[in-house]
Design brief:
The protein has about 325 residues and is α+β, with helices and mostly antiparallel strands. Helices cover about 35% and strands about 25% of the residues. It contains 10 helices and 17 strands. The longest helix is centred in the middle third of the chain and has 21 residues.
């Protein structure tokens, strides 16, 4: 996810070609073209931070408190919309209560009907393909490009830039994520940063609070990456790019110009040149058969999705 903070510096031809050849283009957005929403105005990028453990040793998994479960889930889901009126970064809480469309489980071939579940379950059940279809079905937004980065890449990125400064208003100790911070400001290394963006049990707003922390951290990382000590130092630049590319997954249609456009737009938003919002919600502890979930405010969420779909300026009440 946060690789987008470094790659605008890929203007050097050799680095550009190397990065293009290293991209893992495994997601096919045209796979389920029959039931996709129509093209809207502007461009929508789905940016996913997954808990994929690929590239992590057993000792590292223990250190990062990731567990050892196979497969993967989504720890952060954001839609970046770019268009005539600038860019908007919208976070979708992973516990959002949504309709997952019918699908065939890849490993078993068993068919499942459309059903209500948490957004996070879509990736777990059917990977990026089902996650994309679920977001498109529930928002009416057509996803034009996909970018995903896992635990290992995230940790490597933060370490490569020398850590990221982050301030907390109270002591935070969360056993599940491993986060242990005193009130005040800290320079977070990769492991601490991962714990910070994953923890939610210390947040009054739970999953919604975690989404806000993720946006806050992304802004801080963007600021750090833009400093001369990082951006102009090849001994920092190239390890940073490599750390991101090692676990970055994109769609088959993602060209380097597309990726650079994504990175520039994200950098602009995190620097304050755009809107950073959460999908409107009506309940944070909505009881469901799958446990506590986040229920969207249907009227306000649909209004937001419509404005993004038609590339209109966001209404004041949605900002």
């Amino acid at each position: 996810m946060t690789l987008l903070l470094r790659l605008p510096l890929l203007a050097a031809a050799g680095t550009y070609v190397w990065a293009d050849s290293a991209l893992d283009r495994r997601v096919d957005l045209d796979k389920a073209a029959a039931d996709r929403p129509p093209h809207g105005k502007g461009t929508n990028y789905l940016i996913v931070g997954s808990d994929s453990r690929n590239g992590l040793s057993g000792a590292t998994k223990k250190q990062l408190h990731t567990g050892s479960a196979d497969g993967g889930r989504t720890d952060s889901v954001m839609v970046l919309h770019t268009g005539a009126h600038g860019s908007t970064l919208m976070s979708l809480p992973r516990d959002s209560w949504v309709t997952i469309p019918s699908f065939i489980r890849p490993e078993t071939g068993k068919h499942y009907r459309a059903a209500r579940n948490k957004l996070n379950a879509a990736y777990s059940l059917g990977g990026p393909d089902l996650l994309i279809r679920t977001i498109e079905r529930n928002t009416g937004l057509r996803i034009n490009h996909y970018a995903e980065i896992g635990f290992a890449g995230f940790v490597g990125l933060v370490n490569a830039v020398g850590g990221v400064d982050m301030c907390v208003k109270k002591n935070v100790k969360d056993e599940k994520s491993g986060l242990n911070l005193k009130k005040g400001c800290h320079n977070l290394d990769g492991a601490q940063a991962l714990a910070f963006v994953r923890q939610r049990h210390q947040e009054a707003q739970g999953d919604l609070g975690r989404s806000k922390n993720q946006q806050k951290f992304l802004a801080a990382l963007a600021h750090k990456a833009a400093t001369p000590g990082v951006a102009l130092d090849p001994f920092t630049l190239y390890p940073t790019i490599r750390a991101g590319l090692d676990t970055l997954i994109v769609d088959k249609g993602m060209s380097m110009p597309d990726l650079l456009s994504l990175f520039e737009a994200m950098k602009g938003v995190t620097a304050g040149h755009g809107q950073r919002i959460n999908v409107p919600v009506s309940s944070l502890g909505f009881r469901t058969s799958k446990g506590s979930a986040v229920r969207w405010n249907t009227a306000r969420a649909n209004k937001l999705f419509g404005e993004l779909r038609h590339d209109r300026p966001l209404s004041r009440d949605l900002r």
